[in-house]
Amino acid sequence: xxxxxxxxxxxxxxxxxxxxxxxxxxxxxxxxxxxxxxxxxxxxxxxxxxxxxxxxxxxxxxxxxxxxxxxxxxxxxxxxxxxxxxxxxxxxxxxxxxxxxxxxxxxxxxxxxxxxxxxxxxxxxxxxxxxxxxxxxxxxxxxxxxxxxxxxxxxxxxxxxxx
Length: 163
Known about the structure:
single chain; 0% strand; 5 helices; mainly alpha
């Protein structure tokens, strides 16, 4: 069996089959669900069709990760960075998304994703929702409002700058 460091390195492989095999070894060792992977950087990983059911991935950096058709049911993704990630067709039943940054995430065809889950995320600005439509600000997320406002600040207006 590979070491934890070797398995984490394999998660960065561009070959999806190697990644899936590493995830299975992590599950068998208990490292997928015990918090061992929390706060890790898994940017750009190829986890298409991965079974992450019940995984603890709190504050994991999944920037530009490929998680198409992944089983993310019951996964703790609280505080995770899912910016520009591809979650098309992913199963998000019971996934904890509280505080997750989902800027420009693609959720087209995602399954079992509720409005309650989306209302708890940190940011959805520019996201593509499960129905294929672009996020319209309906949850009034604080970080979305700050981001939108930031783009509208007039640096020559002393009132705007003082706020």
